[in-house]
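Researcher: We're teaching a course module on how sequence relates to structure. For the next exercise, students receive a sequence and then see the predicted structure as tokens, so they can try to spot secondary structure elements on their own. Here is the exercise chain.
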Amino acid sequence: MSVLKLKHQGVKKIKITLKKSLIGKIPTHRATVKALGLRKIGKSRIIDMSNNALVGMVKQVEYMLDIEVIEWNRTNF
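Model: And here is the predicted structure for the students to work with:
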């Protein structure tokens, strides 16, 4: 599902996982993935959807990512 649709549905947090290699990709997309903190295939990060800059970064490279909606509470630590 598109990250913008998730934002409009009121999702607070998402988990992004790098699923495709950065080899042969556009250099700006490579830089965006690295700025998101994803270095290797299979690595994940939790992203706060209230930050519009991060939402835009995820939207730019969502073809390389697996996006999951997470229910966030204190027991997830």
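Model: If you want an answer key for the exercise: The chain has a mean pLDDT of 91. The chain has one domain: 3-70.
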